[in-house]
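User: I'll paste a sequence; please echo it back and then give the predicted structure.

Assistant: Echoing your sequence first, then the prediction.
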Amino acid sequence: MARGRKRVIDDRADGAFVAQSLLAKRTNTNAKRTYQSEIKGMTEWLAVHHPDTIDSSTKSIRVPLPKDAVLPFVGHICSPAHTYDLNSVHASDATHAPLNVSSIWGYRSALVDIYHATLDSQLDTELRGVRMATRRP
């Protein structure tokens, strides 16, 4: 076991490692792959219907997304189920299976993941700025 000053340094390094490890494990690998697929579809749809929500240089979604862009997208992915419901068509008789609730919730989770990643990095940038401003010459 380390003692004195070395132990303090080791504890700080271990703490940073633990924090980074927890951030990496926040979402498992399979979920991240699913999120990438959902975000790709959402990005393609938004690029056509709400191009101002897509960053032209990175081809990624700008956050925060306006509600008037998110709700039409959700309506788009839910429209088959809505149409079948209006026409009293049972899911087993449908020509295309509508998305189930968990799939729709997956889009929400993917969007939340983007927000966490973007806003966490923005917070990190702001905190670094505060740290630099409070450093003594």
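The longest strand covers residues 54-55. The longest helix spans residues 101-134.
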